[in-house]
Amino acid sequence: MSRRAKIEKREIRWRGVAVSEGVAAGRVLRIHTGGRGNIYRATLDTDDLKREVRRFQAAVRLSRRQLLAIKRRAEVALGAEHAYIFDAQLLMLEDRKLLDEVEDYIRQECANAEWAVKVASDKLLAVYAEIKDDYLRERSSDIEDVTRRLLVALSGEAQSRRLTADAIVVAEELLPSSAAELDFSHVRAIASDAGGWTSHTAILARGLGIPAIVGLRDLYRHARTGDEIVIDAGRGEVVLHPTAATVEHFTEARKLVNGGVAAATDGGGVPLLTTDSVEIILRANVELPAEYEGVRRYGARGIGLFRSEFLFTQRGGAPTEDEQCAAYTEIAALAGADGAKVRLFDLGGDKQTAGEFETAERNPALGLRAIRYSFQHEDMLRTQVRALMRAAATGRLDVVLPMISDVSEVRRARRIIEEERARLGAEGHATGELKIGAMIEVPAAVMVADQLAREVDFFSLGTNDLVQYLLAVDRSNDEVAGWFRTLHPAVLQSIKRTIEAAGGAGIPAIVCGEMAATPAYALVLVGLGARVLSMAAAAMPRVRRTLARVDAASACEVASLCLDSATADDAEEAVRVELGGRWPHLFSPENLPAAKSGE
Ligand code: PEP
Ligand code: MG
């Protein structure tokens, strides 16, 4: 019996950006989410060709099994009528002519299977590109999808996201569409090469209370499925192939940190007052159904932001009016008397688009995104508005318009809403009142906040995009993460101005960017006048614990110091000194902005 000696792998450490608290240890599940990647042409010896064909056939079988499993799951989750979308892909994998073409290419050209798949796929895509019929032409996305799946199968990676055992997900970048496929009950932690604090992976992880570290640069290249790994989001540290001593160290840290996180479920349902009796309302940001439980558990005062574009991923395309109506009715029931603010699809930019609405832009953050996208696809917008008004007949729902830059966009959206209300009435549908709010996340909206405040019922201050657009820093690019400065005086002045404009018009301003979910920043927000904060439910206990132990008057003094600062560094220093000095029991150094490493 031959027994291979176990090769000890060297421990490797990475430091990244910790975007969701917690410590975890386990085995890697490597998830390929990128495009086709680089495909190389190899010339094989004739002796190897038979084996190469068999390798291709095995990849086809694996891909078929995966697709059948996905189809079955889709049937359960979405109903049989939606599962048909996978049939086209299955048929391709059964198309003997296509499979023969790949196998013949391997044999005749002495090519590797990856290259043969690429050649056959490119040929097919070229044929589809010529097709006049829009619907058929768009089926080319199925070819791309099957090609990707085959290439992953050939690489030896399991692409199925159906986790049966707990795992730590490692990806180059976990795109929202891939994340939606994961069974989160088995995800212990997420570690990705790309992404930033406000990337969707980060928001999702926080929402689900899963530890996550992003910006790890080349972890994906080194990690293999099944490798042992530990992650400590408190320190932003990831260790691959940890030694026994490292595992022990992390296990201790896990007991401490995760114990603290689990114990932090207090306070839901009780009004949150600062020590000088200023009431702060905490609402929940919600995207995935998996987050609903957190909303109940942490006692959110309604839903401050429902990112409805998730329905696109879930559905694999534009959801129908009835599907949306059902989803919004569920959200309204979850939110109860405090209501839910449903944001119109924020598609484009860093968010997903799907199927027929796919766009390719050079500069997507400044492109056809959010409300612009909806205006451009007016049927889609009208469908969403109708679904919302129908669902509003069952519970309290408000609508939020994303990426507003002036009042004309509000008026145009309002006109459409009123037209659809009249139409629904004529059709005999019951409709509910729908208050209209504007996302304030574009600098122009801050400049005209006084005018906007007179036209809407509330503001939703989206600090993630506000920082991105004010400072011209891509929110999901880790290369420029150092320039994403939440406490930049320009950001703070914009927030103050927006809150004052809302106050002047007597409307609420809800801060719903990630800033609100960070205790130190939440305190600054209160100092700037914010009274309603909306965040991932899992972040609520921490923020609640902090704000219940500070006074709004002191928060105001801290905010003034930040506002008077010349740079983000100075504002961060002020926060470090003031919070660390005034409330040392609440703010340990790791809960404060990091000190400058020197210029
Ligand atoms: C924001 O931009 O701050 C926001 C709340 O919305 P999103 O993160 O979904 O863009
Ligand atoms: Mg935004």
Label the structural class.
Answer: alpha/beta
Name of the top-level CATH class of the largest domain: Alpha Beta
Sheet with the most strands, sense and barrel status: 8 strands, mixed
In total, how many beta strands? 17
Distance between the termini: 61 Å
Query: What hetero molecules are in the model?
Result: phosphoenolpyruvate, magnesium ion
Strand order in the largest sheet:
1-8-7-3-4-5-6-2
User: How confident is the prediction overall: mean pLDDT?
Assistant: 85
CATH topology of the largest domain: TIM Barrel
Helical segment count: 25
State the CATH superfamily name of the largest domain.
Answer: Phosphoenolpyruvate-binding domains
CATH architectural category of the largest domain: Alpha-Beta Barrel
Amount of helix? 40-55%
The number of distinct structural domains comes to 3
Describe the structure.
By secondary structure, the protein is an alpha/beta fold. The protein has three domains: 103 residues, Phosphohistidine domain (Glucose Oxidase, domain 1, 3-Layer(bba) Sandwich), CATH 3.50.30; 110 residues, PtsI, HPr-binding domain (Enzyme I, Chain A, domain 2, Orthogonal Bundle); 339 residues, TIM Barrel, CATH 3.20.20. Helices cover 48% and strands 14% of the residues. The protein has 25 helices and 17 strands. The protein has an eight-stranded mixed β-sheet with strand order 1-8-7-3-4-5-6-2. The protein is globular and about 80 Å long. The relative contact order is 0.09. The N terminus is likely disordered. The site of magnesium ion has 4 residues, from helix 20.
